């Protein structure tokens, strides 16, 4: 794969960190605590790649606002303290990007305290030129707002970016802003026409600049 773009945008969960299991467990445990059933077939569509508010409203819409916030606090507490590993080869790939003067941005539906936890845990701050969290956008993925804001912080537009994502909503957001996308993971997720390659980890990507 020839990487022509000098700007690369990453999602975080499932793309940089192997957090799919952590996220699923957090929501399933929170749901179990209030006797709500989340079915396996709903996880991909309504949890992965979605904003926390979307997932909260979808599964717990019949609860009061205070009850929903208490549920979300349980999810956040679980995720903020999990020692989630990086996807294999991520650091080596980030090193290669930096060696080739590529600007790197993060666009995630996660929140600042959790981003801080993950970045400190894996020493990721030196790699990133821009970070967009869910607090920086009005609408999460599949809306392309986050990618567009991050590209702007990098001094470019999304059509000059390559995006790494793991969820269908992320692929849709990348497609909506005209950017090619690399799908990360070996899970069964539908892809959009702008997905140019699928990788299981960053050791499996063959690339040149």
Q: For the largest beta sheet, what order do the strands appear in spatially?
A: 3-2-1-4-5-6
- Catalogue the unreliable spans: none
Please give the share of residues in helix: 40-55%
| Shape by Cα distribution | globular
- As for the number of domains, it is 2
The overall pLDDT, averaged over residues, is 93
Oligomer: single chain
First-to-last CA distance:
9 Å
CATH topology descriptor of the largest domain:
Rossmann fold
- Portion in strands: 5-15%
Helix and strand composition category: alpha/beta
CATH class of the largest domain: Alpha Beta
Q: Give the name of the CATH architecture of the largest domain.
A: 3-Layer(aba) Sandwich
> What's the gyration radius in Å?
17 Å
How would you name the CATH homologous superfamily of the largest domain?
Answer: HAD superfamily/HAD-like
Q: Write down how many β-strands occur, each being a DSSP E stretch of 2 or more residues.
A: 6
Note the total helix count: 8
Task: Profile the largest sheet.
Answer: 6 strands, parallel
- Order of SSEs: EHHHHHEHEHEHEE
């Amino acid at each position: 794969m020839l990487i022509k773009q000098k700007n690369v945008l990453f999602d975080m969960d499932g793309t940089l960190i192997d957090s799919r299991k952590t996220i699923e467990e957090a929501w399933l445990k929170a749901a179990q605590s209030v006797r709500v059933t989340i079915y396996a077939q709903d996880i991909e569509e309504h949890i992965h790649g979605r904003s926390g508010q979307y997932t909260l409203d979808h599964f717990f819409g019949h609860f009061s606002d205070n009850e929903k916030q208490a549920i979300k606090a349980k999810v956040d507490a679980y995720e903020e303290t999990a020692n989630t590993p990086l996807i294999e080869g991520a650091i080596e790939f980030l090193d290669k990007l930096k060696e080739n003067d590529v600007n790197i941005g993060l666009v995630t539906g996660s929140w600042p305290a959790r981003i801080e936890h993950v970045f400190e845990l894996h020493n990721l701050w030196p790699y990133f030129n821009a970070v967009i969290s869910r607090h920086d956008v009005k609408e999460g993925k599949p809306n392309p707002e986050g990618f567009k804001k991050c590209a702007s912080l990098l001094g470019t537009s999304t059509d000059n970016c390559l995006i790494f994502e793991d969820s269908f909503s992320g692929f849709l957001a990348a497609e909506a802003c005209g950017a090619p996308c690399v799908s990360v993971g070996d899970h069964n997720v539908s892809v959009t026409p702008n997905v140019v390659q699928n990788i299981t980890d960053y050791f499996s990507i063959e690339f040149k600049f």
